[in-house]
Structures are given as C-alpha cells and as structure tokens.
Amino acid sequence: MKITYLIDTDWIIHYLLGAPLIKKELRRLKPEGLAVSVISLAEVYEGVFYSRDPEASQKGFAEFLENVSVLGVDEDICQVFAKERGKLRKRGTLIGDFDLMIASTCLFHEVTLLTNNVRHFERIDGLRFISLSK
Predict the structure, then answer these.
(1) CA distance 32 to 26
(2) Torsion of Cα atoms, 42 then 47 then 49 then 52, to 10°
(3) Can you list the positions of beta strands (E) in the chain?
(4) What is the pTM of this model?
(5) What domains sit in the chain, N to C, each tagged with a CATH number?
(6) How confident is the model at residue 134, as a pLDDT?
(7) 43, containing H or E segment
C-alpha cells in the first residue's frame, strides 16, 4: 500500500480524544495512505498505559492502528537523522530527538507529516507538513 502521510503523535492523541477536525481530515486522507512512526507508537502507548482507563484507551488505540501502517527506524533513517541534527545544531535550532526522528522518517519516505507542532517542524528544510492549527 502506498503511503502519502505520516501522522504525528499530537494528531493521534487528538484523534483518540475525539477531535472532530482531526477525525474528519484523517478520514479524508485515508485513501491516500496513512502511517505512523514507531516513535509515535511509543509516545502514545505511554499515554495509553497511564490513562484513567488503560483498557479502553488500548482498545481505542488498537482500532486506530487498524487503519494505518507503522514505519520503523532503520539505518537509512538514522543517517537522515544524523545529517538533519547536524544542520540544526550548526544553526542553533535543535529540536527534540523524537520529533527529529519522526521528521527524518518523513524525509526518507518522502511523505507529508500531519502535525500541529509547526514551531518545531518548520525548522527542517524540505519537510512537507499539514497543520490544522490556526
């Protein structure tokens, strides 16, 4: 299946919390191919396990994952990460390693990131993203 979009952690959380705009946009984009990074998977699972109702949260997350692919991190993505981190370090504009690994996954796979975390991701040259934040 072709993947066109990578869903960032914040969009996954908003989706699971029932945000209508995010849910509508993901339904619209689903036919073009959706994926999540294994990094987002880890971040969201933390929230799932420490939520008020871990069992219900885990069920909701499992249902969400039925509709998306999961992209791992391999040596190629690590090389993209290293190059991008070096560029950001030189400019004095480093971002968190998890965000940078997600962005590196997008760059390597040539997909668009779905995120509202524009402040961090706009620092990465060549990264395409869609944001629903105002």
Answers:
(1) 10
(2) -170
(3) 5-7, 34-37, 69-71, 112-114, 129-130
(4) 0.95
(5) 5-130 (3.40.50.1010)
(6) 58
(7) helix 38-49
Torsion angle in degrees (nearest 10) through CA of 102, 4, 28, 35: -40
Coil vs helix vs strand at 125: coil
pLDDT in tens, 46-69: 999 999 999 999 999 999 999 899
pLDDT at 46: 97
Tens digit of each residue's pLDDT (9 = 90 or more) over 22-33: 999 999 999 999
- In angstroms, rounded to a whole number, what is the distance separating the alpha carbons of residues 112 and 122? 12
Residue with token string 């990578």: 6
Q: Residue 133: its pLDDT value, please?
A: 79
